[in-house]
Amino acid sequence: MRIIKIFNNNIVATRSENGEEMILTGAGIGFQKKLGDLVSKDRIEKVYEVREDGKDRLYRLFGDTPMELIDAAQKIRDRAKDELGIQMTMQALVGMIDHITYAVERKKSGLEIPNLMLHEIKSLYPEEFQVGLLGLQFIQDATGVLLSEHEAGYVTMHMVNASLGENKESISKIFLFTSGIVDIIEDVFDIDFDEDEISLARLNSHLKFLAKRILLKQPSTEDQVEDFYEMFMKKDKRYKSVEKKIKTFVYKNFHHEVTLQEMVYLMVHINKAISSR
C-alpha cells in the first residue's frame, strides 16, 4: 500500500489492493514519509474505511484532531463493542470524535453545554451510560481534561444512535423529522446549511436522537428548564417563531406534543449550530 495523503506523523491515507481508500493511524507511520512511499505495515495500529460521501468531513477531522483524542474515541468504540455488542459505524465514530474534541475545547475555555436529556439517558440506557462514564476517563487520560457526566450523556447518545435498530419505516420517519426541522431552522434564521457542513452533522445527531425517543414513545421528565427557555426568548425573537413551527410540524406528522424540555434541548443545539457557522 502506498501513501496518498499525509495528515501528520501519525496519520496517513492509502489505498488497499482492491482500490478502497483507508486512513491508517500509528505512532510514526507518516514520519519522514512522502506521497507514493510504501506504508510501513508494522506501524499500523488502526485502519479506518473511507466512504466517498463522507470523505471531506473525515479528512478535515483527521487533519485537525489530536491523535490522542482519536485514540480515546476509538477506545470508547471498542468498549461499546466488547461490553454491549454495539457496532459503531465510521460515521458514528466521526460524530463522537467531533463532539469530544469540541467538548474538551469548551471545557478548557470554561464553557459547558448542559445535557437536558441526562436523566432520561441515565434511566433508559444505564449500561451505555456506564461506558460513557468510562469514556470520560479515557478522555482525561489523553488530555488531562475531566469532563462532566453531561458529556458522558452525549457520548451515550452517540452509542444509542448507532445501536438502535431501524427498519425502512423508522428510517423514513427519522429522515422526515430531521429534514423537516432543518428546513424550519433554515427558513426562520435565513441560513442555508451545506450538505457536508460539520455544524449540520452535529445538529442532525441530536435531531436523530430526539426523533428516536419520540418514535419509541419513551417517557419524559420535566427538569427545571424555564430559565433556559426565557434566555432564548430574550436572546432572539426568532426562537418564538421556530418553537411554534416545530411544535406544529411534530404534532402534524408524529402526533406528539413537544415538551418544554424537548424544545429547550432543540434550542440549545440550534443555537450551537447557527453560532458555529
Automatic annotation (TrEMBL):
<protein>
    <submittedName>
        <fullName>Transcriptional antiterminator, BglG family</fullName>
    </submittedName>
</protein>
<dbReference type="Pfam" id="PF03123">
    <property type="entry name" value="CAT_RBD"/>
</dbReference>
<dbReference type="GO" id="GO:0003723">
    <property type="term" value="F:RNA binding"/>
</dbReference>
<dbReference type="GO" id="GO:0006355">
    <property type="term" value="P:regulation of DNA-templated transcription"/>
</dbReference>
<dbReference type="InterPro" id="IPR004341">
    <property type="entry name" value="CAT_RNA-bd_dom"/>
</dbReference>
<feature type="domain" description="PRD">
    <location>
        <begin position="170"/>
        <end position="277"/>
    </location>
</feature>
<dbReference type="InterPro" id="IPR050661">
    <property type="entry name" value="BglG_antiterminators"/>
</dbReference>
<keyword id="KW-0677">Repeat</keyword>
<dbReference type="InterPro" id="IPR036634">
    <property type="entry name" value="PRD_sf"/>
</dbReference>
<dbReference type="InterPro" id="IPR036650">
    <property type="entry name" value="CAT_RNA-bd_dom_sf"/>
</dbReference>
<dbReference type="Pfam" id="PF00874">
    <property type="entry name" value="PRD"/>
</dbReference>
<feature type="domain" description="PRD">
    <location>
        <begin position="64"/>
        <end position="169"/>
    </location>
</feature>
<dbReference type="InterPro" id="IPR011608">
    <property type="entry name" value="PRD"/>
</dbReference>
